[in-house]
Write a structure and sequence with these properties.
Length: 131
């Protein structure tokens, strides 16, 4: 579903506090290394009040990293939590993997309007979505 050209993708969604409309503001991808770039909806989202993420100030740059960007990793539970096995089980994971947990959980926090979603690129093949 979220694989295309050998990369795995997640869309970063931002919800406007004014209109509650959701915008795809960024794309996080992975294939050995991580890449993040802002998406086409960014200008419209800025008109609604979106501000660039501190770690990614340049709207036109492709950011790369060997590990998950700290801005996104900080949205996940610490792997040393006592109840981490319960959390992983909730998302159908058997081991702690930051990217897979980000993908399965959406990394939503009660303090902001961001969420990751798993995009669907190929509508011609059958797929199943769990909500």
């Amino acid at each position: 579903m979220s694989n295309k050209d050998g990369r795995d993708y997640l869309f970063l969604i931002w919800k406007s506090e004014k209109t509650r409309k959701q915008y795809i503001v960024g794309v996080l991808s992975r294939n050995g290394r991580y890449e993040f770039k802002y998406y086409d909806d960014i200008k419209e989202a800025q008109n609604e009040g979106f501000k660039p993420l501190v770690e990614f100030p340049d709207l036109n740059k492709l950011y790369t990293s060997e590990s998950l960007f700290s801005t996104f990793a900080s949205r996940l539970p610490d792997k040393r939590r006592r109840d981490i096995d319960k959390i992983l089980n909730k998302y159908g994971l058997t081991e702690f993997n930051q990217y897979e947990l980000l993908k399965k959980s959406g990394a939503r926090l009660p303090i902001d309007s961001y969420e990751f979603i798993n995009p669907i690129f190929d509508y011609d093949i059958p797929f199943e979505r769990t909500f």
